[in-house]
Structure formats: structure tokens, C-alpha cells
Amino acid sequence: MAYTNFKVEIDSDGIATVTWDIPGRSMNVLDQRSGEELAQIIKQLTEDAAVKGVVITSAKEAFCAGADLAMLEGMNRAFADMLKSKGEEAANQVLFDRCRELSQTLRNIETGGKPWVAAINGLALGGGFEVTLACHYRVAADSPKTQVGLPEIKIGLFPGGGGTQRIPRMIPTQDALQVLLKGESLNMTKAKAMKLVDAVVPAEDLIKSAKDWIKAGGKAVQPWDDKGFKLPGGTVYSKAGTMTFPPANAIYRRETFDNYPAARAIMSCVYEGLQLPIDAALRVESRYFAKILRSKEAAAMIRSLFVSMQDLNKGARRPPNVPPTKVKKLGVIGAGFMGASVGYVSALAGIDVVLIDRDQASADKGKAHAKSVVDGLIAKGRTRQADGDAILARITPTADYSALKDCDLVIEAVFEDRKVKAETYAKAQPLLKKDAIFASNTSTLPINSLAEEWKDQSKFIGIHFFSPVEKMMLVEIIVGKNTGDVALATALDYVRQIRKTPIVVNDSRGFFANRCVLRFTAEGLEMLMEGVPPPMIENTAKMAGMPVGPLSLSDEVALDLVLKIMKATEADLGANAIDQAQKKLLVEMVEKQGRFGRKNGKGFYDYPEKGKGSKRLWPDLGGLQPKKLDPDTLDVEELKQRFLVVQAVEAARTVEDHVITDPREADVGSILGFGFAPFTGGALSYIDFMGTKKFVDLCHKLQGKYGARFQPPKLLIEMAAKGETFYGRFPPKKPASVAAA
Hints:
By secondary structure, the protein is α/β, with parallel strands linked by helices. The strands form four sheets. It has an eight-stranded mixed beta sheet with strand order 12-11-10-13-14-15-16-17, sandwiched between helices. A six-stranded mixed beta sheet has the order 1-2-3-4-6-9, with helices on both faces. Strands 5-7-8 form a three-stranded mixed beta sheet. The protein is built from 30 helices and 19 strands. Among the domains are: about 5-295, 2-enoyl-CoA Hydratase, Chain A, domain 1 (Alpha-Beta Complex), CATH 3.90.226.10; about 330-510, Rossmann fold (3-Layer(aba) Sandwich). It is globular.
């Protein structure tokens, strides 16, 4: 029988090799057709008496990247249609049956009586990894590219093809929960040590090793189908089990604050499933999966963290009329922490970098930062010495501006001061080649005003990195009123080269990310001035879904920098543009108390010397509060709402101001840039999924109690009256047809 996505060959020993190879795709995904064909192949090979065993592998560089999310979205649409036409009971049954299909298919591998071996080459993630878990033996290629994992939790889902039941039957429960709840990929050293992979062999021996296991009498029965099977972590109510689930529940609450339905479902699936035979346990998993698939959190996270992010990474905002560009040589002016980090990530991507500072010692210090990062990776076994040396060889530190003459792109990362930047531009501009693009890494100063120092403003653009550059995946590209398409295309192509996610925004003070996140930190200061206990401020922010509290984030940014930005805004726009009470607090902290934040070990928190304990809120902070409120009288839900609403309403204002023109960029940018509660799908999705009318009503309620910062913009009020959403009113454009090189 011929298949579209698989090729089946049976050798003279009666061993069938099933090769997964979806036409026209760089990676295999578990889509509708693959699932249907795999079910047919299992049936065919099970019924063929001549077949002694089966090896499943891939013809591509990876085994399988996971389930096709478009298929899952289609299942949700079918549920919605059925709900309208035949009611909830019928719709629930159809969705449950669909969610069971893969689970039953993979169960047929286990119970078909023929030994199956997964020959894993490259990535095997999500549903792809679940296919291998159903096989009786797993052999993997010895390569850094070979990784396995179940990352579904990162997009609001959980493994629905048996992963929540097989993993805890293979490894101790506490380890299984880590694999399921963290969603991290495992290299082969770790996967083999955990016994999730049985053998690791040279890539060229992969298929031979798989067949050899079958020829040697490989058993066609899973351990959990054997009569005497015992759970590796003990039963739920054994001594080991009672020592696992209570602390696991506590950790779950601490890490998620119950904001992620999929994480709760994983806990329930494992807890309930381990008390049941495998077939009943798989039914439990399918029920939870059907429920989570319908959740707004899953819909929001899939849209923003998978579909939208993929579109932006592929060049959704790239001008289609510009041919692909590639930065071969990059100039970075300013070898401080930010500039040095930009130089490092660029060199890591294979780009030659010139790192310039006021003197050779300062430039050398910038390269030393890159060396410290490389040394750390080598020490952890994440890169080889030769590869690290190659990265460093691509970075040339110098004080000589003439080194910029053959750079394709130059990024300025000097101090956030107009005069300093203007002096830098005056030195660099005459030395650049004719078609070079110049970018500023400014975090708040408007690009239009900075571009006034530039002769050809079409070649001037903003490229705003987030700290720490090595870890932060977002890059904000700021387009000025005179920025040309070539500059925009070059910036987007460069961000793609360094493997980060770009968002494109129009110019304004603070652009998008800083406008929103400064509302978050300012709200924390507002609460401090109101008399809310500092620990309560920090904890309710984290309960709302933010990664850290506003006081902690202010310390990370640096309080002296926050004060400097505040003073610059006041100088440019007047005293009413800032909160004078907050300015007074920061003047006290910075200028009188000498508390600059983490960088000098004291801010809103006291920071211990390295390796000597954890940070603690400054004990005297309460003394700076004009009054103190009784925590028992405060509405925790309202405090949580204030943190999210104040950022979301600012995101709506950026749409009204035409800073954001594509809702995907606000959502992806808010999550990647400043950690806006990921379970919401981002700042605009938070509004969309709540409903614009309900959100506007909440804004008015908070405005009445706390002031004009919660006032919804006219655009939002108009949308609420019409029942519109951001994705409905501003439908995202398709990715550009011309992709970057």
C-alpha cells in the first residue's frame, strides 16, 4: 500500500522500516494525514504474518517537531460548529473521540504483538516524542541535534498522546513531573541517564542497531503490560508517593499561582492515572486534553507563542520589495554591557564584529565580557573550546572609528544621552560606506529626534535590545518617519540572523515595550505610596502572572536610570508628564540613600555578596511610605488586576497612537519583552479574551478609584461599543513573500 507521508519497506529478515517524510516540509509534524496513515500502517504490519518487527525513523534531519497546531485549531472549530448544531453533549463526545485518536493509535503499537523500535534522528518533540514512547525500544543518534522533550506546556497544552501516563511509568514520579511541567528538551546524555532512551549510537549505525535489537529477540510488550509491573516511583499512596504529591502541589502553586489550566491538568492526569490500569489512565488523559484544548488560555498561548511568533520570525513585517540582505560585518559603538552583549550574540551567529569604545582598554573590556560568556558555556559542556575560540576570533575590539568603513550595519549602544549620541554620530557618519545602515539601541529617546543628526535619514533606524541580550529573545525595531524600506529589511534580516524575534513599531517616547513595562513598575511605586505592604506588592504581581515584582524589576533596570529617564521626560514634556510623588521617592532612594538597585547591591532590596544567601526587601523601605494600610483590608484580586490592566490599557494606547500596527507584535512583544502574563496570550489578547466591553468597564472602575492612568482610550471605547476585538479590527497580515537570506 502506498502512503503520502510515510514509506514502508520490508527487508529479507522480515523487518519493516517505516520512514516518515512529509512532502514539501523541512520537518515532519504530526498532522491529520500522518495520524491517519500511521494508524493504517500499524494495522497493515500487525496483520502481516511475514513482518517480525518494525523500525520507525525519519528521512529528514529531525524525527518529528510535534503536533500540527492547525489541526488542533481545526478540532476546536469543529467543536464550536457541533455545539451550535447538536448541543454540548454531542460536541463534547466528538471532541473527546478526536482527542482519543492518536492515543489509541499509539496504544495499538504497544499491543499489536510486533516489536517496534524508534530510530530517533534529530529532534523528537511533543507528539513526535510520544510516538517513540509507545515503541518498545528507543535508539537515538549520537549528535547534539538529537533531543527529545514534551514542550506542550509552553503553549498552554499538555501531552495528549499518552505522555502523561507513559513517562511516570518509565521514571520516578517526581522526575516525570519535572519533564512534563517544565517542557524542556533533553539531550541524549540526560535522556539515556533517565532511561527515556535505551541506546545512543553513531548516526550511521542507527537503523542497524534498531534492527539488531529486534533480531536479538526484542520483546513486544511494554513493562506496564507485564503482570508483575511496579511503578518506578511507587504507588500514589505508598510512602514514596505521599512524599511526592504534597510537595509537588506546593511547588506547582508557587510556580504557576494556578494560572495555567494545562499545568493543573498534568498534575491531575498523573495523580489519577497512576491509580488506574494503563488503558483507563489513557482515557483520563484524553478527557483532560479535550477540556484544556477548549480553554481560552490554550487558545491565547497557541496564537501568540506559536502562530504569531512563527509569522514574525518568518518576516511578516518585512518589506517585500527589498531583496534579501545579510550582515557580514557589524560595527558596535559602545562596548559597555549592552554593546558587548550585542557583539557576542552577533559573533555567535557567524557575523564579524568590530567593537568600538573611547579607548582600547574599554573596548578590550567589552570583548572580555564575550569571553566570560564563552568560558561559562565551555565549563557547562554547552560548547566546545574550538567553537568558543571561533566566536571570540570574530570580535575585534578597537578605539579606531575607521574600522567601521566596511561594515554593513552599525549599532550605536552608547550612554542614553542626546549629547553623547550626537558626538558619536559625528565621528561615525563620515566613515561609513555608501549603503551602510545605522541603528541606535536607544531604549527611550525618540528615533525621529536622533535621526536629525543624520544626513540620509532613510538609513537610520532603531534596534532596541533587551537585557540580558544573551537570554532575551525579543528585539524591538523602531521605524522613524523617514526610515526607508531597505533599513527596515536589513534590521529584520539581521535579527533573523542572530535568531531572535523582531517586532516593528513606529517611533514614540519609550516605543512599545518600555511604555508598557514602565506602567508596571510605576504601579508598584503607586501602591508603595498608597501604603500597600512591599511584600504584598511583589507577591500580587507574581500572582497576576508577571515573572517578578515591580520593585524587583526596578532594581534590575537600576533606580538611578529610572530617575534619569523620569527627569529627561520632565525636561522634554514638562512637570505634568511624570508623577512628582514617585520622583520624590526615587530622589530619596538614589540621591540621598545611595540605593541604585542590584548594580550596587542595594535598592528596594538588599543584595548579599555572591553566593551568600538570597536578596531581601530593604527593612527600612516601610519608613519611606507616607502611610501604611492593613493587608487584611486589601482586595488581592484588585491588586492583581491593576498590574495587568495598567499595562494592557497602555498597549491599547500604543495602537491608537499608531506605534503598534499589528496586534501580534504587541502580544509577542509583551510576553518576550517584559514577561506580561503568558497565559493571557499578551497585552492585547488579555483584552480580547476578556471582551472589550468588560475590559472597558473594569478600566472605568479602576479609574474612579485610582486615577486617569486607567482611563481607556477613545479607540477602546469605540471597539467596546461595537463588540470588536483587536484581532478582528486589525487583522494580521500574512508573512512577506520575500524571506531573508
